[in-house]
Amino acid sequence: MEKEPMTPEGHARLIKEAEHLKHTARPNNIKAIEEARSHGDLKENAEYHAAKDEQGLIAARLAKAEDLLARAEVIDPKSYKGSDIVFGATVDLTDEETDEKFTYQIVGSFEADAPRGKISGESPIGKSLIGKSEGDEVKVRTPKGERNLAIVKVRYI
Questions:
Q1: Which are the contacts of 121, defined by CB distance < 8 A and separation ≥ 6?
Q2: H or E element: which one contains 34?
Q3: 104-108-113 Cα angle (round to 5)
Q4: CB atoms within 10 A of CB 102
Q5: pLDDT tens track for 6-45
Q6: Are 98 and 149 in contact (CB under 8 A)?
Q7: What are the phi and psi torsion angles at 151 (to 5°)?
Q8: Which of 15, 71, 107, 133 could potentially form a cystine with 4 if both were Cys, beta carbons 3.0 to 4.6 Å apart?
Q9: Is residue 1 scored above 90 in pLDDT?
Q10: Which DSSP helix (H) or strand (E) runs through 32?
Q11: Sign of the C-alpha dihedral computed for residues 140, 144, 148 and 154 taken in this order
């Protein structure tokens, strides 16, 4: 069973999602199915079919969350004091061609949200940063083409 690295924040968010699905979404969906059944003929009952579809989506999301929780390896970035980039690092970067500055935290795959500055260690940029240090330059192939990035600062917060 392959471990799934995640930050304490991502782990807490996943627990919260699983609890919501179990204790709120699923019971509400069961009530919606029961109410839709009471309307009669199930073949032409759009409410019933929508509620059943939602039931499947809730079950799939819950199974995914429970699987991730079972395989969770919670890694607190604050516990790392080194200068190399590892999981959990927050890295300030500069694009050497455009001088664009940006900051990313390297997180687990399910936590990744690039617009919020969280990238997976499995992403092209994440892979290229792992093992590097402040002052290093990395060449990254991205969907937008090759980029040359300078590592300005590495923090564990």
A1: 5, 87, 106, 107, 108, 109, 127, 130
A2: helix 26-37
A3: 50
A4: 13
A5: 999 999 999 999 999 999 999 999 999 999 888 877 777 8
A6: no
A7: -85, 110
A8: 71
A9: no
A10: helix 26-37
A11: negative
148: amino acid identity, one letter = N
Cα distance between residue 130 and residue 109, in whole Å: 15
Mention every residue, 6+ apart, whose C-beta is less than 8 A from residue 12. Answer: none
**pTM attached to this predicted model:** 0.84
Coil, helix or strand at residue 66: helix
Q: Angle of helix 26-37 relative to helix 46-70, nearest 10 degrees?
A: 160
Q: Which residue has the tokens 């929508």?
A: 50
- Domains of the chain plus CATH, in order, are 4-74 (1.10.287.180), 77-155 (3.10.50.30)
How far apart are the C-alpha atoms of 46 and 30, rounded to whole Å? 16
Residues recorded for the chain = 157
Reported as a single tens digit per residue, the pLDDT across 98-132 is 999 999 999 999 999 999 999 999 999 999 999 99
Q: What percent of the chain shows pLDDT beyond 70?
A: 100
